[in-house]
Amino acid sequence: QATYKKNIVEGKPTFTMIEDINGYDFMELVIMILIAIFVLSYRNQNGENVYKFISETVKNVYNKYAPYSYQEVREKSKELGQEYTAKEYITQIIIIGGGAAGIAYLYFYSIAMAIVYAIVAIMFIPYLAYLRNNRVYSEFLFEEIQVYTTNVINEFNTTQSFVKSLEGVASSGILEDPVKSDVETMIKMSYQNGTIDEAVEWFNQKYPYYMVKNMHQLFMQITKEGAKDSGESLENMMLDIDLLVEGVYRDKIEREASHKKFLGFGVALYFLVMLTQMLLDKQNYKTMLSLWYVQIILHMIIIINSYFIISGEKFYNEDTGVE
Q1: Which of 22, 47, 114, 124 is the most exposed place for a label (fewest CB within 10 A)?
Q2: How many Cβ atoms from other residues are within 10 Å of residue 1's Cβ?
Q3: 260 neighbors 169 (Cβ within 8 angstroms)
């Protein structure tokens, strides 16, 4: 204010106003103005639900471009009660977006950068949901395959026929879709072709689990070559399945434990910049931010560490029990 009054006396009010504005980050000013425009327009919508509009838009894009397989995965996650609620998604947006904004501000001391990184981080939330839904669905499939193999073996001990065993399991009501409908498809293929070969090969490709391939191989051997004591072979097969299932669940527990440590380590890496600021002094650090190559290095640190974390998330959510 003192500078402004002095310049009025000197007849240079315009010059001082430009000089003061140049003291701000122009990009930050533009973004703040855009946010203000958005807020004002929202207030003038006479109660229109902006969230509903955004969610409907996202839903339409999803229905148009998402592969059918993932739509099926998401619907099954909803049936299992594992799909996130709107409140949980909003919580994720606040935590991930807020965390990204905070980290970016610590790196660049720029509101503009904080907003940009927050937006980018929020854009990854659907991908994280995609990974999580796939994991939930793969765990469901693994449990269904476990039920399928053990019950087919038990049915075979009674019927001594692979197709009759499939019919018994399919009609028992213990399986759920899509495994149930695929077992029914196997039955149709076996009757149409007069052999189980094509049906087994089709099912093995759709569900590439060791226990499925090993069990089908045993049944094909018994069906084609016969066996003096199929009961002993089937009992050994059941033991193998139990060992495989035990190994998969043990791996799941270990993966969950390592996942928590991994996330903690990954987040901690972001805050190494605070150690750098302590060593250099905060003011010296801010001075270095004016150098273009320092900016590039900082961006690369964030990007590489983010890639590291996302790759870890992808590994953690990989298919359960699949080869």
Answers
A1: 47
A2: 5
A3: no
